[in-house]
Design goal:
The protein has 33 helices and no strands. With about 600 residues, the protein is mostly helical. It has a domain at about 480-605: Serine Threonine Protein Phosphatase 5, Tetratricopeptide repeat, CATH 1.25.40.10.
């Protein structure tokens, strides 16, 4: 619209004001908003002057005041604010508007005088307070916004008033210690808010750009614990904070201190730290915590669970380190047998009994005691149906490991039938399909796997897809299934921990043809063998070849994740681990490992 057209419209609108005042006001307001939004503040100011003269509401005032500022008409803006304040003395934000003009005119002394006057004018009538505080925030004077909220508290004698607003301002300012003290002042009055406070502080720490927030929380906690050494709440908050920082050793020290001062809790905090440390793979701290609880004696309410917990940690260690020497295995076996003898075979010790069976079958290579132990589990009265199904799957796996293929298949079919519409049934179907793959019944196995690819469980669907693609890709390329059969035989040897034989078998498959779709799978299997043998450098080299030569294959993300774990946990090369996690996140955003990779990436990035 050209300038003449705009003036014409303005004249027409002005002509019609006396005839239809409401409609004219609406149209005039629309035109004023149009000019303002398009940066044409001179025309906007003219229209808002007219509107404000006839309808002196706050909205027209704010638009007119802003238009004056945009035009550099500071005197007009100041006169407007002063006149409105005279007519509306309770609108304390108008002092801020006046002070802001003085700041723009580089008269800070006059500005601060206006700001102070606004604070002095606060009474027990809180109506003007939100607008006043927001006016200070809008011009970046957070210190005065804080004074506004604190003055309102003083006038009303309510120390929790504007808690959320104050926390937000402190966080924006980066005054994290003050922010934390605000949270703790709330807890002094309302200890039941602990969970809510922890949630908000955790969210703030996740959003914080650096460590200053964590440092502020730490210092505030130290101050509170020093001031209130017998306050259990702040000792527990210290434990919580240490856990957020992944400092499990310090959190255990604090938990033991809480237990010493408040023995009636029976070690509740220590047990909690043990569980969280275990989940975060800090096995040393978890073991130490469980042993601490056991030393409190069998009468302690956590004695039973700590006995189970310590052995669970020991079992996790052998899974984490792949290869364990014979003496360590013998010692762990004795600890399991002693614990089961002491605690009995019952519903609470089922996790112990299942882990013992895994230990005996896959690590000690004695499947018969493992089978007997799982048979004993199934004899426990009133065993829950899902636990019974899980144990049957464990038993089927061990029977397959021991060579009892038919018995394993019967157990899988039994669980599938008993749990048709849940995850256990899908797991059983997947295991039976894998068994058929080992038996070279590729057509039937693939038909079952295609059904499972639509499973509601992402993990089952992914495993089914990988095995299905392995079978279907090689069925198409080899109508006799010769290579696929040799590969399945080698895979079964690997499953049964016959590692040297499996290595030779995979080598034999690789030598049969110069190129084959199975080559990337062979590299993955050979890397897994070397990992089980604790030959980590060779495993890393094999995985690197897979990633280099087959970057888009379905096994590429598996290789990257395994390579990252190897370099982080066993090769002391965090830089390469970080590189692998990053490549997985960038190149394979739909991988099942994305969440774990992002978590480890963020931890390594900070170190």
């Amino acid at each position: 619209m050209n300038k003449i057209g705009k003036i014409l419209i303005f004249c027409i609108l002005s002509t019609f004001v006396p005839i239809v005042p409401v409609a004219a006001q609406q149209t005039q307001e629309q035109m004023a908003a149009y000019y303002y939004d398009n940066g044409e503040f001179e025309q906007a100011a003219q229209l808002y002057e007219s509107l404000y003269k006839n309808y002196a509401n706050k909205y027209y005032y704010q638009r007119l005041y802003s238009s004056y500022l945009k035009l550099g008409e500071h005197k007009d803006a100041l006169r407007l604010a002063e006149k409105r304040l005279k007519n509306n003395p309770k609108e304390l934000a108008l002092y801020v508007d006046q002070g802001n003009v003085h700041l723009l005119q580089e008269s800070e002394k006059k500005a601060l005088k206006c700001f102070d006057k606004a604070i002095e004018s606060i009474t027990s009538d809180l109506a003007p307070v939100p607008d006043l505080a927001m006016a200070f925030i809008n011009i970046g004077r957070y210190d005065y916004a804080i004074r506004t909220y604190l003055k309102a508290r003083e006038k009303t004698r309510s120390q929790q008033l504007y808690f959320t607003e104050l926390v937000g301002v402190y966080q924006t300012m980066g005054d994290y210690q003050a922010m934390t003290h605000e949270y703790f002042n709330l807890l002094d009055k309302q200890p039941g808010m602990k969970a809510s406070v922890q949630l908000n502080m955790q969210k703030a720490m996740l959003e914080a750009p650096d460590n200053r927030l964590a440092d502020g929380i730490r210092q505030a906690l130290v101050d509170r614990v020093r001031e209130h050494p017998d306050n259990q709440l702040y000792l527990e908050m210290m434990i919580w904070f240490a856990i957020q920082q992944k400092d499990f050793q310090f959190s255990l020290v604090q938990a033991e201190a809480v237990d010493a001062r408040f023995p009636d809790k029976g070690g509740e905090q220590v047990f909690r730290v043990a569980a969280i440390a275990f989940e975060n793979e800090d096995y040393d701290v978890a073991s130490e915590a469980y042993r601490y609880l056991q030393r409190k004696g069998q009468e302690n309410p956590y004695y039973f669970d700590s006995r189970v917990g310590e052995l669970k940690v020991d079992f996790a260690r052998i899974n984490h380190h792949y290869a364990i020497d014979a003496d360590s295995l013998a010692s762990l076996r004795q600890k399991y047998e002693a614990a089961i003898a002491e605690l009995g075979k019952n519903e609470r010790t089922v996790p112990l009994m299942r882990n013992y069976a895994q230990l005996m079958a896959y690590y000690v290579n004695e499947p018969q005691p493992a089978v007997s132990m799982l048979d004993d589990v199934l004899e426990i009265p009133r065993l829950k149906a899902n636990v019974c199904g899980e144990v049957k799957l464990d038993l089927g796996d061990i029977l397959l490991f021991a060579g009892s293929v038919w018995d394993a298949s019967l157990l899988y079919m039994q669980v599938e039938k008993e749990h048709k519409n849940d995850i256990l049934g899908a797991q059983a179907k997947l295991k039976n399909a894998r068994l058929s793959y080992f038996n070279h019944d590729f057509d039937w196995a693939n038909s079952q796997l295609k059904v499972l690819r639509a499973s509601t469980s992402k993990l089952i669907a992914n495993d089914a897809m990988e095995l299905s693609l392995l079978i279907s890709d090689n069925m198409e390329d080899d109508s006799t299934y010769t290579m696929l059969s040799l590969f399945a035989d080698a895979d079964l040897l690997l499953y049964r921990n016959q590692l040297d034989s499996a290595w030779d078998a995979f080598d034999h498959v690789a030598r049969q043809m110069l190129s084959h779709p199975l080559f990337d799978e062979i590299l993955m299997r050979k890397a897994q063998i070397r990992m089980k043998q604790a030959r980590y450098v060779e495993a890393d080299s094999l995985l690197q070849r897979l990633v280099d030569f087959y970057p888009t294959d379905i096994t590429a993300d598996d290789a990257l994740f395994l390579m990252a774990q190897l370099n982080e946990d066993h090769l002391d090369n965090p830089a390469k681990a970080l590189e692998c996690y990053e490549k997985l996140l960038v190149d394979h955003p739909t991988s099942l490992y994305v969440e774990q990779a992002r978590k480890r990436y963020n931890i390594l990035k900070v170190k």
